[in-house]
C-alpha cells in the first residue's frame, strides 16, 4: 500500500514538473520577444501579414514602434472580407487600424474579475474581458494573448472591429430629422472677429462628442417632435414673435432627449434624462436604432415623459434669500430639527415698517402655480404675527396678510399665481406696515410652488 502511494506521488510530481516546464518554456518564449518592438513582432508573424500591411499603409507604424501600447491584431483570415470603403480611404483606414491599438499595456488577467474600458489611439473606447475585446457591437476573441514586446503587448484576434461614429456625428448626419435641426440651431457666434462658434446644447446639456462618456439619445420623427413641441410651448412663453424659438424652449425640448447611460440592449421601461425627467421607453415606438461609439440613438415615433418631472414644483428654503430691505442685524437663520433642511428664517425686533425679504426664482415656467408656505411661530413672540407674499413688487399683495399660528407645522395655502413668461419670478415676504415689534416679525421655513396642469 505504501509502495503504491509512493508511486502515485512520483507520477503526480512528474506531471507537475512537466506542466511547470511547459509554462516556463512559454514564459521564456514570450520574454524572447522583449528584444523586438510591436511593429517588429507583427511583421515577423506570417499570420498577421495583412494587418502588418494595413499598419504600414495607415502611417501608424512609426507611432507604434515606440511608446507603450497594446495591439489586438486581426489574423489574415479575419481580414479577408475587409471592405474597400476602409482600405481605399486614407482617413477611414487610419481610424480602422487605430481601433485595434490601445494606450498602455493590458494583460488578459487584468480583466479577470471585471471588464476593462480601454482607450484606443483613434479616440474610441473598447471593452476588454479575459478572452475577448468588444468595440460597441463587434467582438474579437483572442486566438493568442499576452505576447510581450519591448514596448507593449500583442494579441491575435479572430475578427476585426469597425470604428463607429459618436452620437454627435450621428445627430449631425441625420440632417432631415427635426431633432437634428433643433440641435444645429443652437450654434452661436462667440467671437465676431474670428466668427468662432459654440453649440450651447453641447455646453449646457451634454457633450455628445465625448468618447469617454456614454449616452442614450432619443431622436423623434416629425409627428412625435411636433406633438412634443406643441405640448412644451405653453410652458416656455416669452415676449418674442410666435415664429421665434427661444433658447429656453430649445433647451427645454432637448434636455430630456439625453440619458448618460448607453442602453445598447435591455433598455429599461423608464429612462432618467440628464435633467432628471423620467422618460418612458416603449420598444414598439422605435423606428430606428443606430449604435455609436459612445452610445446609442433611438428614433421614436412617440415621446412620453412624466409631466411632474418636466414642469416640476419649486421649493424655496426661507434661509436662502436673495435680498433684504433693511439692516441684516435682525435676520436670523435658526437651526430647527422640525424645519425643512433643518433651518428656517426669523426676522425679529427690526422696528421697520414693511420690512421684506426677496426670493428670486430663475426658471419659473409660464403656467399657473399654487403657492404654499410653511411658517411656524414656535413661541418666539407671545402673540400671533401677520405677514404677506408680494409678487414682483412689494406693493403687489394679491393675497393679503396671513396669520402665522403658534406651533403650526402644516403648510398653508397662500393663493394662485399665473406666470406669464418663462424666466425669473420674484417673490417677496413682507412684514406688517408698522414699526411695532409686537406685529412686524417675519418667519419662514419654505415656500412651495406647485404647477397646475389643466
From TrEMBL:
<feature type="domain" description="FAS1">
    <location>
        <begin position="35"/>
        <end position="161"/>
    </location>
</feature>
<dbReference type="InterPro" id="IPR000782">
    <property type="entry name" value="FAS1_domain"/>
</dbReference>
<dbReference type="InterPro" id="IPR036378">
    <property type="entry name" value="FAS1_dom_sf"/>
</dbReference>
<dbReference type="InterPro" id="IPR050904">
    <property type="entry name" value="Adhesion/Biosynth-related"/>
</dbReference>
<dbReference type="Pfam" id="PF02469">
    <property type="entry name" value="Fasciclin"/>
</dbReference>
<feature type="signal peptide">
    <location>
        <begin position="1"/>
        <end position="25"/>
    </location>
</feature>
<keyword id="KW-0732">Signal</keyword>
<protein>
    <submittedName>
        <fullName>Fasciclin domain-containing protein</fullName>
    </submittedName>
</protein>
